[in-house]
Design goal:
Largest sheet: 6 strands, mixed
CATH class of the largest domain: Alpha Beta
CATH topology of the largest domain: Rossmann fold
CATH architecture of the largest domain: 3-Layer(aba) Sandwich
Helix content: 25-40%
Strand content: 15-25%
Number of strands: 9
Low-confidence stretches: none
Order of helices and strands: EHEEHEHEHEHHEEHHEH
Distance between the termini: 44 Å
Radius of gyration: 20 Å
CATH superfamily of the largest domain: P-loop containing nucleotide triphosphate hydrolases
Mean pLDDT: 87
Strand order of the largest sheet: 2-3-1-4-5-6
Length: 296
């Protein structure tokens, strides 16, 4: 049997379930997921290993009309992914009709010249899937199309079988024990941000960034992590901290639970909330916070 390997980009507008689909395809959680749009900000790669080969899935930020420099960097992250992968998977939400963002993505696919497949996600939210994908099929020329539920992990086998068929023969890109290209600091910061998105009001989520300032073992069974949570306004800082620190404590408890399960060790989270006005429009701070630089 020949060995297949290649890169598959998951693209789509915000909140169609790309990260949930990535986790379902890998059989483990490597990307944070919430009900809030724009949860994914960075390009995250997840590696599926099998006897027949290796599929590197590239989870990308949701495509939207840029409102500030952070959005511009996110869109450029998607554009780079479209140029660099072997196959593009356009993920859509079949519980809703196409939106302007879906049409814009289809136009991006046509300009890229890359092969694309269409994945209709969230089949668990509709009583009958018949005809639900038809309006999306009219947007572009797709090689194949599928209906899945990433949440219920249904319909995935035909999808992965097709990916194996379409990818070229080649050598593995990553070692067998590697399932993501994320650093530990990035993963920890994303878990903390996930809990903030889940717990705070609409005023806060998209103004939040998290950096890891220190991470070190304190003993054989304890890892110490100091993280900075950046917001843009004092009112947002007050929300994240909460009355007598209640919200910040809850964020820390939920994040610590996930991290202790992931690392199989005790974790001490030392969380600090800081204000950095308009960081989403400051190139220096975007780079410092780990968002890829804009292309000239």
């Amino acid at each position: 049997m020949s060995f297949k390997s290649g890169f598959v980009a998951l693209v789509g507008r915000p909140n169609v379930g790309k990260s949930t689909l990535l986790n379902a395809l890998l059989g483990r959680k490597i990307a944070i997921t919430t009900a809030k749009p724009q949860t994914t900000r960075n390009r995250v790669q997840g590696v599926l290993h099998a006897d027949r080969g290796q599929i590197v899935f590239v989870d990308t930020p949701g495509v939207l009309r840029p409102r500030h420099k952070l959005d511009e960097r996110m869109v450029q992250t998607v554009m780079r992914a479209l140029r660099e992968v072997d196959l593009i998977a356009h993920v859509v939400d079949i519980s809703r009709p196409p939106r302007n963002e879906d049409l814009h993505i289809a136009q991006m696919l046509r300009r890229s010249g890359q092969e694309a497949i269409l994945i209709g996600n969230k089949s668990d939210l509709v009583a009958n899937t018949a005809g639900r994908l038809d309006p999306y099929l009219d947007l572009a020329s797709y090689r194949r199309h599928f209906i899945v539920s990433a949440e219920l992990e249904s319909g995935l086998q035909p999808l992965t079988d097709t990916l194996w068929e379409q990818l070229p023969e080649g050598q593995p890109y990553f070692p067998e024990d590697m399932v993501t290209d994320q650093t530990e600091d990035f993963y920890i910061s994303e878990v903390i941000r996930e809990k903030i998105l889940e717990l705070t009001r609409d005023e806060v989520p998209h103004s939040v960034a998290v950096t890891i300032e220190e991470r070190q073992p304190r003993s054989e069974h304890l890892m110490y992590v100091r993280a900075a949570i950046y917001v843009e306004r004092d009112t947002q800082k007050a929300i994240v901290i909460g009355n007598r620190g209640k919200m910040l404590k809850q964020i820390g408890q939920l994040a610590r639970k996930d991290l202790e399960e992931y690392y199989n060790t005790r974790v001490y989270l030392d969380l600090w909330v800081k204000v950095r006005s308009h960081w989403r429009d400051q190139d220096g701070w975007l780079t410092r916070l780990g968002y890829p630089k804009s292309e000239s």
